[in-house]
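Students often ask why inverse folding is considered easier than folding. One informal answer: many sequences map to the same fold, so there is more than one right answer. In these notes we will look at a single instance of the problem. The structure comes first.
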């Protein structure tokens, strides 16, 4: 989706801009990452199109060539624009790339939307990738978890461990800011892409995940991006849409209030609200008890 320069939202957090990353440290970790992946032989990269997995895929291709394969999972929880961007990035890198279908919505444990929903989603993904890797002679499956993800409540990591998936960015200690700095250095166009998450993360825990809700969220967010907003979420509360944008963009939303209300009602919402707390990753977790089990997640 094309965005206007006047409405392009600033990335304010240090880790989101790559500012503050020590160049010497980034260089050393880049070399360590290259050496680590080079020693793996043949790898499949679980490639979402986000900056983290894009960096892993780029470095894997740099050191392994066509022994690196990017695989992107297609399901109703992935927006069409994200699918198209993943394909475009893979073409830019030059790496072999496949789309596979996953069917997490067929799992009633996932569809019920518990707070560890991501465990079932990643379990479905790696349950497809593991036999693919074995059949095609790939030695490892890699994901894009970085060093800053350590300690987060992410049940997807539990699923990764259960399937032997490796996280090379974590293994060499690359932080989010360093990932962005290195991605920028390597010429990856999505180095400053806002953090993304599957569409299901917009639905409150305990509310069922349905194809209808996912499509409604996708259409609502695509509409807002068409207006130039970049870092955003449309949280889905049945017939109410709760819009999150970065605090500095709140006046811009209000300035286009009537247009936004009309657009979101056109995709099926009755009520449209603006969250005055602004965008924050994992806002759905604010409704959870403060004491989390070890493998609860913090959806972006």
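Output (designed amino acids):
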């Amino acid at each position: 989706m094309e965005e206007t320069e006047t409405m392009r939202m600033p990335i304010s957090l240090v880790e989101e801009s790559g500012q503050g990353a020590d160049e010497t440290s980034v260089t050393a970790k880049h070399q360590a990452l290259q050496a680590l992946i080079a020693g793996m032989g043949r790898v499949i990269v679980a490639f979402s199109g986000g900056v983290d997995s894009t960096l892993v895929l780029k470095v894997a291709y740099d050191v392994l060539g066509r022994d690196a394969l990017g695989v992107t999972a297609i399901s109703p929880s992935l927006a069409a624009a994200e699918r198209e961007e993943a394909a475009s990035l893979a073409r830019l890198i030059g790496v072999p790339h496949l789309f596979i279908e996953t069917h997490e919505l067929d799992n009633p444990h996932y569809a019920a939307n518990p707070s560890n929903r991501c465990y079932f989603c990643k379990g479905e993904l790696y349950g497809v990738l593991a036999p693919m890797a074995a059949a095609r002679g790939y030695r490892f499956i890699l994901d894009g978890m970085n060093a800053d993800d350590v300690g987060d409540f992410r049940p997807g990591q539990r699923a990764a461990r259960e399937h032997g998936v490796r996280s090379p960015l974590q293994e060499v200690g690359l932080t989010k800011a360093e990932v962005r700095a290195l991605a920028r250095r390597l010429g990856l166009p999505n180095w400053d892409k806002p953090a993304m998450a599957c569409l299901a993360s917009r639905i409150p825990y305990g509310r069922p995940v349905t194809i209808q809700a996912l499509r409604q969220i996708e259409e609502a967010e695509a509409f807002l991006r068409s207006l130039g907003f970049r870092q955003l979420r449309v949280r889905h509360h049945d017939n109410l849409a709760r819009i999150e944008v970065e605090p500095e963009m709140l006046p811009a939303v209000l300035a286009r209030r009537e247009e936004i209300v009309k657009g979101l009602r056109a995709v099926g919402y009755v009520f449209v609200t603006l969250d005055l707390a602004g965008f924050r990753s994992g806002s759905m977790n604010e409704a959870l008890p403060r004491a989390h089990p070890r493998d609860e997640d913090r959806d972006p």
